[in-house]
Structure formats: C-alpha cells, structure tokens
Design goal:
It contains 10 helices and 14 strands. The protein is 37% helix and 27% strand.
Length: 383
C-alpha cells in the first residue's frame, strides 16, 4: 500500500506539470479557425505581424485553402486568404523567402492583385509594404459594395464635422453574429466615408472615463447629446439594430450635441445575417449620411449682426442644423523656384449653424468666431 502511494505522489506532480504546458495549446485549439483568421486580420491592422502570423497558422491547420468564398458557420460565408495574409506578415517580419512561399500558394489557390503586388515587391527587393486598397482589404466590404466618393474640398479648410458613434441598442440579436463587434464596424464605416472626423473607440472610452460619464442607459437624443457635448464633438450617432427572423435592420440618427435635434436619420436593411451583409449594411448607412450631408462650397451674400445669408439652399441639399465654416482667401502662394501660383492663403473667419433653409439660399447664425466677422463674398464650406 505504501508503494502505491509513493507512485501516486510521484505521478500527480508530473500530470500537473504536463497540464500546465498543454493547457494553452488546448485552449488555442478550442478557438474556431475563422476566429483565429479574423483575430489575425485585426492584429495586422495594428501592425502586430507576429501575433497575426500565429493566428493565420492556427487557422491554416483546420482550413488550408485560400478562397473568395468559404463557409465559416451556418449560412455565413467569408473571404478567406490565410496563405496570402501569412505571407504579408512574413514579408513585414523580414522573412521574404518564407513570404514568397505563402504568396505563391495563395496565387495557385485563388489569385488576387494583393498577393501579386506583394510577390512583385519581394522579387524587386522593395521593403515598404503597400497599403490596403478598398477592394483587397480583408476587413472591408465585398467587391459589389459601392464605396462613397471622397468629398471634394478646397484644401484643408477647418475640421470636418466631429462625431462620436455610441453603442447601438439591439433587439432579437443572439450569438448568430459570431462575436462581431458592431460598434467597431460602425466606427470603421464612418471613418471610411471620409466625411466625418470620428472619435476612435478607445479615445471615446478614455474621455468618458475621465469625465465620469457612462454609456449605459443611452436611449434618447437628449442623453446622447449631453454625452456628446461632454466629450466635445459636434454630433453623436445613436441607433438600434433589430433582427426579425433572418432579416436585420439598422436605424441610426445623427444628433446635434448643442440642442439635441436630429440632423439626419438613415436606415439600412438586409434579408440575410452574415459578416458580409453586416459590413455592407454599415457602409451603405455611412454612405447615406455622407450623401445627406454633402461637403459643398458657396458664398456669403449678406450679413446682419450674428446672422449670415449664404447662396446655398435646399436644392444643394443644405438642411437646418448643418454647420459651415466661413473663410477668406488671402495672398497667393508662389512657388519659390518656378514662380507659379500654387494656391492661396486661407483665413478662417467663423463657424455658423444653418437655422432657416430656402430653395436657393439659407440663413445661419454665428456659433464661433475665429478671426473676426464675416463679410459679403466671403467663401463658405459645409463642415
């Protein structure tokens, strides 16, 4: 009996040590392959190439073929290019030959311009990595999604409308989204629209924490506007995501933080619930806001105290509550060598909010003086 106990007392510590060594591997194996893949993509966005490579290698152990359409789970299909993305990671880690091997496998299985571009860079000895294009970025929408055009501006006149995207309420949403972070996707959608200055999520949470503000209980425009004012943005995006059967709808409102009025309200709908459809809906939603609040230029045609009249009205999609920047052109900027005029000095005068809109003109009230009072024929651009 004593001998048996001695054997047990020897074996138990060994088993314990083995469990400590194997537990991380077991946990890693329990993580689904597609979650490894998407975690790898997220790590790439951060520039954490080593972590990304580990995740891609883990996903390749289960599914080792690059494809434009791979079933993740249920009816959810994703773009899946683990060989290509692993090759890009290895390229950035300074391992060109290993990167070349992975990129060649990707090109054999499912050719893409992105894989060819990196392979060409390796062959030419270039070390600077190209940026993602919209069509090739694995975290963007599929090719059929139309991307909003970059708004036309006159130089860098002031800042764009600053917004914070607050968490959306959800109804009927369970685990079928596969851990998709809707708030992150919403923020990304608005950033990609190139129309707004978007407060990044980590920065938003830090500011809220510093100012002792919380995100719980945000259900009405007044509360949302109060939080937006507290963090210093022009407007906040608030809304809801609703599931009904296999359909999904998103309703969103852009709320002015000064007076809690709704500047714009948009929605998006899909009769499928998938990663692709969610991304497509969110980008369409951001595109709708961009089209509803265009960046357009005009002139000040009259001034009266704190009020200005501009030659932009409802026919140009100007609406009540929109903000604009009044600016004045100054001396020309002359190239010191060629002597050519390459631009003009810009002087911001003030900011104004549109209070009355007519078909061909609008009236605004000055909300912020920057360098004086506006004058007739000063230029104006929507914020």
């Amino acid at each position: 009996m004593l001998k048996v106990w001695k054997k047990i007392s020897f074996i138990l510590p060994v088993i314990f040590l083995i469990s400590l060594v194997l537990t991380p591997d077991i946990q890693a194996q329990q993580l689904k392959w597609y979650k490894h893949y998407f975690r790898g993509l997220k790590a790439m966005e951060r520039g954490d190439w080593k972590t990304a490579a580990v995740h891609f290698q883990a996903s390749l152990k289960v599914k080792d073929k690059d494809s434009k359409k791979t079933r993740a789970y249920g009816t959810v299909f994703i773009k899946y290019y683990p060989h290509r993305e692993l090759g890009i990671c290895l390229y950035n880690l300074g391992k060109p030959e290993l990167a070349r091997r992975q990129l060649l496998i990707s090109l054999r299985q499912s050719p893409t311009p992105r894989a060819r571009e990196y392979l060409a860079r390796i062959s030419s000895g270039r070390t600077q990595a190209p940026s993602y294009s919209r069509e090739e970025s694995p975290l963007k929408t599929p090719e059929k999604t139309s991307s909003p055009k970059k708004p036309e501006t006159e130089g860098d006149i002031g800042e764009r409308l600053s917004i914070a995207v607050l968490p959306f309420s959800s109804q009927g949403i369970g685990s079928e989204l596969g851990g998709v972070d809707l708030l992150d996707k919403l923020i990304t959608g608005f950033v990609n629209s190139k129309r707004f200055k978007v407060i990044e999520r980590a920065q938003l949470e830090k500011i809220l924490e510093e100012q002792k503000l919380g995100l719980s209980g945000i259900v009405d425009p007044a509360t949302a506007a109060e939080i937006g004012k507290g963090i210093g943005v022009d407007a906040v995006v608030l809304g809801s995501v609703t599931r009904a059967g296999n359909s999904l709808s998103i309703d969103a409102r852009l709320i002015d933080t000064e007076n809690a009025t709704i500047i714009s309200a948009q929605d998006a709908y899909s009769n499928q619930i998938s990663l692709y459809q969610i991304s497509e809906m969110i980008n369409k939603l951001a595109e709708k806001f961009t089209n509803d609040l265009p960046l357009i230029k005009g002139l000040v045609i009259n001034t009266n105290g704190d009020n200005i009249t501009i030659d932009l009205g409802s026919e140009k999609k100007i609406k009540k509550g929109m903000k604009c920047i009044v600016y004045r052109e100054g001396d020309p900027i002359v190239h010191p060598v060629s002597g050519k005029v390459i631009g003009k000095m810009i002087k911001q005068v003030c900011e104004a909010r549109i209070v009355d809109v007519f078909p061909n003109y609008s009236i605004g009230t000055i909300t912020k003086q920057i360098s004086g009072l506006p004058q007739k024929l000063d230029k104006v651009i929507t914020k």
